[in-house]
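INFO worker-7 received task bundle
INFO bundle size: 2
INFO processing item 0
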Amino acid sequence: MPFATIGGITLHHRHVKTTGNARPIIFINSLGTDFRIWDEIVSALDGEIPLLVYDKRGHGLSDIGDIRSIDDHVDDLSALIDYFELSKVVLCGLSVGGMIAQGLYARRPEIVEGLILCDTAHKIGTTDSWNTRIATVESKGIQAIADGVLKMWFTPAFHAALDGYRNMMTRQALAGYIGTCAAVRDADFTDAARRIAVPTLCVAGDQDGSTPPDLVRSLAELIPGARFEIIRDAGHIPCVEQPEALVALIRSFIASLAPGAETHG
């Protein structure tokens, strides 16, 4: 299992190299998950495009660290890009991962050549909704909210397969989950989204209960020239429910970018 210790934080990752002129895609997972949610996507694209997946701090096998704001997650992503000496990347972020992608672009736009923003927004939830969730998790644990969250994450047709994803969610570090909830609560990329000047694809599952399609569409409308797509029969995590549909969108998006310099990922 590969790990990288950067700035005092150890991050669990998987780096899939290839040759050619495609930019590396970095996948950033959602709240309460680890990078295994991207397994089907990575498997499908392996050999075509250089890929990097990682567990953000407080999740999976990465260190918990101190999470005070979304900037802490952006710090880790920025440092990971430098660790692998990547000069131009495409970021594919899901939910809070999409906010981290927006934050990285706002900080270092010169290294980002495209954004794929899945089931995310410029602003997610309200202060009250996040504070209520945090209070419940602090007093009763993640398991107290798991069933309700999973019903928003996945379509009814997928509910028979939720045990593994419930385990993934409830086994996340409590401090990492709560810290990231607070980071999302306080993050607002409304103004930053208007300044995005790279090709951007915004994607929503048609049955997403966490970031509904209209919310994702509102993000696309803020970003000049952004493309908006809905994935049918999917909830909040289309990379799990409808990986083939998401892979097709990713391939189409990558093909639309101008060729880059030869890379080995």
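INFO item 0 finished
INFO processing item 1
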Amino acid sequence: MITQSRLAALSMVAASVFIAVSTFLAKGLAGRFSMPAVDEDIHPLQITAGRFLAAWILWLAIVLYRRRAFQPIHWQLHVVRTVLGWLTVTCIFWASSKMALTDATAISFLTPVVTLALAVLLLKEKVGPVRITTVAIMLTGAMILLRPGTSAFQPAALIALTAAVASGFEALYIKRLSALEPRTQILFLNNSIGLVIALIAASVVWIWPSPLQWLLMAGVGLSMAMAQIFFLTSLRDGDASYVIPFMYSTLVFAGILDYLVFGETTDKAGAAGAIIIVCGAIFLAVREGRRRGNTAASSASEDAD
């Protein structure tokens, strides 16, 4: 019999698969797929627009099906969060089209480092020696992967790094919004505002896609939407400290797709750096989850007293 915690873990693995599929399809659309009767590749800005369009249609259907009235909307938080989310997605798609998916994915996993740094600088949270050491280890892994100042350095890695920074800022806004509004409302508004932003940005580089390109862009959007659904389901059904580490299986699925279809792999140094980053991220996720659990248990004990 499959327990609820195992189902939560499977949901997170499913989310990871869909994330890998979305970046894989974006990479193909940006020029890696060999498609007949296609004169031009799709720019990452346009791929992002396709992603938001498909996801918006899905969330619109969900909202109409549920027929629930919206709670008060915090527009400023939504707009800032969505701009950061749009930047994150665009940079991930762009970086994925220029480098191995494993490298781009691993660099994007530096988001917890950025979030932690912002929590210290903006929220004045206290950070102990264990967390500082873990962050230092993850940054070391990033330097091994990036190799700045050497011939192995990839400029596209800076694009992936921008995605990690933007995602770190976005996480703070998601945290604030999650305490104020229901998740379905947040996701629908995120995709609605994101669609407007993405279409405006894509208008600069827009080409009319072929039917196959339209289909693939829809696949990018639906994959991201399914990833969101499975991610939220996993967090609902399981403890974050248990399920979040399974999210890093994205690296494995992205690497498999990249190798089987495009024949691309990372080198030994890149693999070592990626492993260090992922191990550090998993440790942070588990430790932060336990700390929150201990804090909640302590508060409950004090209330009982």
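INFO item 1 finished
INFO post-check item 1: The two ends are 38 Å apart (CA to CA).
INFO post-check item 1: Residues 12 and 231 are 6 Å apart (CA to CA).
INFO worker-7 idle
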